Amino acid sequence: MATPEDTGSWLLYLSLAAKCGGDGQPHRFVGFLVVCAVAGLLTCLLHWSFPGGPAWGRWWWTRRRGCWAAAASVPGPRGLPVIGSMWLMTGLAHRKLAAAAGRLGARRLMAFSLGETPAVVAGHPDVAREILHSPAFTDRPVKESAYGLLFHRAIGFAPHGGYWRALRRVASTHLFSPWQVAASAPQRAVIARQMVTAMKQLQQSGASSAAGAAVRRVLRRASLHNVMWSVFGRRYELQLDPVKESDETRELGALVDEGYDLLGLLNWADHLPWLARFDLQGTRARCSRPVPRVTRFVGRIIDEHRSAPPAAAAAVDFTDVLLSLQGSDKLADSDMVAVLWEMVFRGTDTVAVLIEWVLARLVLHQDVQARVHDELNRVVGLDRVVTESDSASLVYLHAVIKEVLRLHPPGPLLSWARLATSDIHVDGFLVPAGTIAMVNMWAITHDPDVWPEPMEFRPERFLDDTSFQVMGSDLRLAPFGSGRRSCPGKSLAMATVAFWLPTPLHEFTLLPSPDPARGVNLSEVLRLSCEMAVPLAVTAQARRVA
Ligand code: HEM
User: Fold this and answer.
1) Confidence band (pLDDT; 50, 70, 90) for 1?
2) Any transmembrane segments, and where (predicted)?
3) Substitution candidate for ligand 1 out of 131, 220, 345, 480 with most atoms within 8 A of CB
């Protein structure tokens, strides 16, 4: 957006150009165009010449003109004129950003430009804390796709304020409180048994070639069913055969996938507003397709809840809770759709992605899996199934989960960035309002100055300090973020992972696929979460007679 200072510079250029162009003669008009073009080019180069690239230069040469020499600027790549370093946010952005920061000696804090948007990325725990805990960074930049998919009315993208606070309070009390997490344990147990049955069927059918895709499918469907149960009160059987799956699961699964693709996409128009009208990447068009389906789907469930007799206390789901809100907390139907849809969306893939990484590491490191099995034998014994209350005693397994969160954080850039709502100092540098701030959690967890031998998979490092928390108090490993906008679903997510992992591990020894071409491949793909690029393929050998 043009600032008054920009306008001032352009008035100067135009008056110069007008002097060249005045009396309608063709050569004068050409002169006018040349002066305009040269002025535009000079402005671009001037802005681009600044550390961090054009968005930073624009800010320094306009808003901070006169006092810019007094303060140091955040180091960072210039990128290209106009677009800055957009490509840093494509592909495996966490790795590209870490490499650029390393090259430029900007590991703690690096500036770069996403088109017209200034951005910073922190790669040190202290700087990460400054950002995540600062009241100036409690908003999020709302992308076009987030608006398009209704998320600006849900917790994740709602501006920090009364509406957001009310939503967080309701969700914390009725979905994520320790009491609620404990109360939903029987539901997780039902789904955990379904997962084991599905994996047995998979092995018996000898579908080894399809096994890889099926592990991922079992995990994703289990997560989706779990969240649909909590949020909508819907219960489904886990079906390996897509044809036998319920229409609702299939529909919602497809909507979640589409939402993931759209939100994970770098939309150039978010940072180059003059591109917005063209919708070159088709973001607006793509968003407009799932939204009516989401509205219809969730709206139907809301209507069914309205017309049903009041649920017994133990059977109350999150839709019932939202419908029961009164007074200033009461939500419009459209907001209710956004909030419910976000919960399903956020709760589905994150948990499945993390479990798939843990299983991959256990297949790859058979010695670690053997230690997990020893612990299960000791704590649970081979004559019964794992229960959720066993989970707290599985100290080594918890160390494995933490080590996987360290090596493969599901949100390496903490998924959703923060937005500076006022000018603010970070690590001694002035960062302007409107800057997008990210934390490169992946860079922190792979930094040899923070974690000795960071590339090694060594769960034992967490056995020395079993009280190490991954919930956001220690920024050396904070996969759920930190501060006011940290993940509200973290306790539920950890309870689910810490119970769903030992359940199949108690039943099976997981071995690599017999097909050498389908060995464990740790390549990543970054969508909204960082997933395994090649789905995990395993052979499961029974270790317990049921
Ligand atoms: C392994 C599982 C999960 C991981 C790694 C994860 C990670 C994250 C991260 C990094 C953030 C941003 C935090 C920040 O800005 O400081 C976040 C936000 C959020 N997460 Fe999670 N999450 C997980 C599971 C869940 C689940 C199960 C739910 C709900 C069912 C959930 C709901 C949310 C919501 C609503 C936000 C936005 C919070 C706000 O802006 O106020 N997450 N999550």
Assistant:
1) very low
2) 29-50
3) 480
Q: How far is the CA of 360 from the centre of ligand 1 (A)?
A: 23
CA of 485 to the centre of ligand 1 (A): 9
pLDDT of 466 strictly over 60: yes
Instruction: Name the residue of 487, 490, 496, 500 whose CB sits within 8 Å of the most ligand 1 atoms, as the mutation to test its pocket.
Output: 487
Calculate how far, in angstroms, residue 326's C-alpha sits from the geometric centre of ligand 1: 26
Domains of the chain, residue spans: 152-542
pTM above 0.90, yes or no: yes
Contact 202, 211 (CB under 8 A): yes
Q: How confident is the model at residue 209 (pLDDT cuts 50, 70, 90)?
A: very low
Asked whether residue 43 carries a pLDDT value surpassing 50, the answer given is: yes
| Amino acid 21: pLDDT | 55
Tokens of 335: 């907001």
Separation CA 493–CA 353 (nearest Å): 11
**Residue 284 pLDDT grade (very low, low, confident, very high; cuts 50, 70, 90):** confident
Alpha helices in 380-451 (DSSP H): 395-407, 441-445
Q: Which residues contact 144 (CB under 8 A, 6 or more apart)?
A: 267, 269, 270, 276, 283, 284, 287
Nearest to 170 by CA among 320, 347, 344: 320
Pairwise CA distance, residues 448 & 436, whole Å:
27
Annotated binding site: 487
Assign domain 152-542 to its CATH superfamily. Answer: Cytochrome P450 (1.10.630.10)
Tell how far the Cα of 54 is from the centroid of ligand 1, in angstroms.
Answer: 32
Q: Rounded CA gap, 407 and 391, in Å?
A: 22
Q: What is the pLDDT of residues 73-83, one digit of tens each?
A: 899 999 999 99
Ligand 1 pocket, mutate which of 149, 346, 531 (most atoms under 8 A from CB):
346
Length of the chain as a residue count = 546
- Determine the Cα–Cα distance for residues 430 and 68; give it in Å rounded to an integer: 10
CA 177 to the chain's CA centroid: 22
Q: Tell me 139's DSSP state.
A: B
Interval 316-336: pLDDT, tens: 889 999 999 888 889 999 999
Q: What is the DSSP string of 445-487?
A: HT-TTTSSSTTS--GGGGTTTTT---SSSSTTS-TT--STTS-
Beta carbon of 128 within 6 Å of any ligand 1 atom: no
| Closest C-alpha among 468, 487, 345, 464 to residue 416 | 487
State how far the Cα of 81 lies from the Cα of 40, in Å rounded to an integer. Answer: 11
Q: Judge if the beta carbon of residue 57 lies within 6 A of ligand 1.
A: no
Q: Output helix, strand, coil percentages for the chain, rounded to the nearest 5.
A: 55, 10, 35
User: How many whole angstroms from 350 Cα to the centroid of ligand 1?
Assistant: 8
